[in-house]
Amino acid sequence: MNKVFQPQNVRRVLLKLSGEVLAGEKGFGYDDTVIDALSEELIAIKNLGYGLAIVLGGGNIFRGGNWRKQELNRVVLDSIGMLATVQNALYMAEVLIAKGYPAVVFSSLAVDKVVARYSPQAALAAMEAGSICFISGGTGNPYFTTDTAAVLRAIELKADVVLKATKVDGLYSADPMKDKNAKFISSASFQECLEKRLGVMDLTAFSLAADNNMPIKIFNISKPGILKDALLNPDTGTYIHP
Known about the structure:
single chain; 8 helices
């Protein structure tokens, strides 16, 4: 596996977006200005010929695992969070469809009256037909994050890379928001991330990626045009590789 991101080898992409991205500065619900700009970037990527699947979080609506009333049933809370990802996926897909671009939503949860049930075969067929695919509902099980869902779907769909959108430019030696001496890391192996305890994503998601040699590229979603840049520019973001 190459230690440097090679754009020419990437044709199928799994994009992981947090729900908070859709909320913009409001932090809750939807910021239509942000969503409009994001949808244009998704269309631009698809028009370059990439196969594109997207896993959205639901934190702009509900964060199950972090709910302050921890005496409540975690399984129920996580189910509410997974349903929030379905809402986000449906909204983003409708925005794309309204702009004349094909998009389809699949769910790991059984909500068949609202959205089709996910299977790798169905998602691949939709991607090959030219649609942007939103895969919602997390893994369909509680106690797993949408990061884990993103890596799992990337493996199932034989994606070439997981693009993980964050609020910082990539991976750092420490939290750049708290440590001014934190150093940017442009490339790191899975082993280096484990040895240096670099927080790429939660351990379950990271272990799944490492075990299946699924590379990850981390980048700052807040910059205009960043999706295209993350795919075409090896120097943008941080590349995590086997």
